[in-house]
Specification:
3-stranded mixed β-sheet; 49% helix; single chain; Rossmann fold; alpha/beta; N-(1-d-carboxylethyl)-l-norvaline Dehydrogenase, domain 2
Length: 302
């Protein structure tokens, strides 16, 4: 069992830190929020007074922070040069590829092994220990990070060198955002052409238009498996977080000089839904309401 510093105990970090404590690790937790710290303590973690105190004797440091600037601040002020030289550093936040590469470079220069390990899966997966981790870093850093990540997730995949985890995460979510919008507009058109949504689902889910956004996460209530659509788009993956990931994808595309017309359209549509129309707290499939505001939910099938 290891001494693990955990910094960032919000919606996701709270459950992840609790799972490490449950697995028997000595988890020393820090967050700027008093409420988050109190919850971590109740979940079996020890409270640290600062990030520096949390990392002082740590064998591993895990961070789960909002964005690149928080990761840069925490690593440069409180982790690099403050954690013991042999510690393995794991940043699980979703951030821009460039900041991830820069921080891994700085950590390596200072003699640390570090990975970027963003996650797929929401709050329930963080609590249930069923996240998927996409990991960037050297083979050696990946092998050291793997056993810790396995205690918080169901799948741990080595995506490539430093920053590759973030690249995989934003590419996946760009595809997801674009395919969700395409699924929504397709169902709206199908209905306007007189097709019954369930009948169209039965056909398209077995035909070449099949995709995850349709068969696993159908944006129509009462069609396909149970999804946030059946709960008025509450829970699930917030449109605001989808927008965050699409913006990161567009920033990466600009930096890599890559043409992404569908990703760019998805970013524009999610900006309108999440910000102009106030749908940021709704599940991202709720964008179907914006695509057809004359659409009426079919009676849900019992
Ligand atoms: P959150 O805002 O709930 O939690 C972030 C925590 O970091 C907060 O408790 C905040 O107080 C703390 N924090 C900020 N700056 C800090 C600092 N300098 N020192 C210590 N603590 C600090 O966010 P979240 O929903 O837990 O998401 C965390 C990361 O995971 C984000 O990068 C997000 O994009 C990603 N993510 C979230 C979800 C989700 O469903 N919520 C899913 C996948 C990935």
């Amino acid at each position: 069992m290891a001494r693990i510093a955990f910094i960032g105990l919000g919606n996701m970090g709270s459950g992840m830190a609790a799972n490490l404590a449950k697995a028997g690790h000595e988890v020393r937790a820090f967050d700027l929020s008093e409420a988050a710290l109190a919850k971590a303590e109740a979940n079996g973690c020890a409270r640290a007074a600062s990030a520096e105190e949390a990392v002082k004797d740590a064998e591993a440091v895990v961070t789960m922070l909002p964005a690149g600037k928080h990761v840069r601040d925490v690593y440069e002020a409180s982790v690099i040069g403050k954690a013991p030289a042999g510690a393995i550093l794991l940043d699980c936040s979703t951030i821009d590829v460039d900041t991830a590469r820069e921080e891994i470079g700085k950590a390596e220069e200072a003699g640390y092994a570090m990975v970027d390990a963003p996650v797929s899966g929401g709050i329930a997966a963080a609590e249930g220990g069923t996240l998927t981790f996409m990991v960037g870093g050297t083979d050696e850093a990946f092998e050291r990070a793997r056993p810790i990540l396995e205690q918080m997730g169901k799948a741990v995949i080595h995506a490539g060198g430093g920053g590759a985890g973030q690249a995989a995460k934003i590419c996946n979510n760009m595809l997801l955002g674009a395919s969700m919008v395409a699924t929504c507009e397709t169902f709206v058109l199908a209905q306007k052409l007189g097709l019954d949504p369930q009948t169209f689902f039965d056909i398209s889910s077995k035909a070449s238009g099949q995709c995850w956004s349709m068969t696993t996460y159908c944006p129509l209530p009462g069609v396909g498996p149970s999804t946030p659509a059946d709960r008025d788009y509450e829970g699930g993956f917030a449109a605001a977080l989808m927008l965050k990931d699409l913006r990161l994808a567009m920033e990466a595309a600009r930096n890599a000089d890559s043409y992404t017309p569908m990703g760019s359209a998805a970013e524009e549509l999610y900006t309108r839904f999440a910000e102009s129309l106030g749908g940021g707290g709704k599940d991202f499939s709720g964008i179907i309401k914006m695509i057809d505001d004359s659409w009426e939910a079919p009676a849900s099938a019992d």
